[in-house]
């Protein structure tokens, strides 16, 4: 009598309790590829949190400026930068010129200067370096080689003043390059015009 032989493929299908290969998409949550996906998601989440921390540095400065304040911004860059509403408006202008990172870096340095906790100083300094100094960062600010060299040395033992030279250089850049254009920009002119009209109506 001829014996009926069952092929391996049929045998596999005939067992209803047998699960598909553990690495197929359906069972991915059980295997190593799911761990890789989860790790990537966690890393992306951490990067997003880190970015948010830096970009929301004491910048809740949404107070409405008076006409007198807005006119003072045109008197000097120093007066503009010392005024919370002025910094906000200037930051909006920098965003239109794709150079908002200059203000973000300056604000991050100001925040670091107020820090007294050693571990917080280390963490904030590292974040500032990765976000604005590293040549791999999309938000890298423009600094000369001398200042970069100084920062690299200071990063071995960060302090609240690690980025002082870099902050001054970026402040000077914004003052000489962006500030004159800001005063002639539609953003600033419309604000002053709107303030003048409100003042005359009242």
TrEMBL record:
Forms a complex with G(alpha)z/i2 subunits and mu-opioid receptors; the formation of this complex results in mu-opioid receptor desensitization. Interacts with OPRM1. This is Regulator of G-protein signaling 20. Residues 76-192 form the RGS domain. Inhibits signal transduction by increasing the GTPase activity of G protein alpha subunits thereby driving them into their inactive GDP-bound form. Binds selectively to G(z)-alpha and G(alpha)-i2 subunits, accelerates their GTPase activity and regulates their signaling activities. The G(z)-alpha activity is inhibited by the phosphorylation and palmitoylation of the G-protein. Negatively regulates mu-opioid receptor-mediated activation of the G-proteins. It comes from Astyanax mexicanus. Keywords: Cytoplasm, Glycoprotein, Lipoprotein, Membrane, Nucleus, Palmitate, Signal transduction inhibitor, Ubl conjugation. The keyword Cytoplasm applies. It is found in: Cytoplasm; Membrane; Nucleus. It comes from the Eukaryota. The keyword Iron does not apply.
């Amino acid at each position: 009598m001829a014996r009926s032989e069952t092929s391996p493929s049929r045998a596999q299908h005939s067992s209803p309790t047998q699960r598909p290969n553990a690495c197929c998409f359906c069972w991915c949550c059980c295997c190593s590829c799911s761990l890789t996906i989860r790790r990537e998601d966690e890393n992306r989440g951490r990067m997003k949190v880190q970015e948010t921390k830096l970009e929301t540095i004491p910048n809740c400065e949404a107070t409405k400026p008076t006409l007198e304040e807005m006119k003072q911004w045109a008197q000097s860059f120093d007066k503009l930068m010392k005024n919370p509403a002025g910094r906000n408006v200037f930051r909006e202008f920098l965003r239109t010129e794709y150079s908002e990172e200059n203000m973000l870096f300056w604000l991050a340095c100001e925040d670091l200067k107020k820090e007294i906790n050693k571990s917080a100083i280390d963490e904030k300094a590292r974040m500032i370096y990765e976000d604005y100094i590293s040549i791999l960062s999309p938000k890298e600010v423009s600094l000369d080689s001398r200042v970069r060299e100084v920062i690299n040395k200071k990063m071995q033992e960060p302090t609240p003043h690690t980025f002082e030279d870099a902050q001054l250089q970026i402040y000077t850049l914004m003052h000489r390059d962006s500030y004159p254009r800001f005063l002639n920009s539609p953003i600033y002119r419309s604000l002053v015009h709107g303030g003048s009209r409100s003042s005359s109506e009242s």
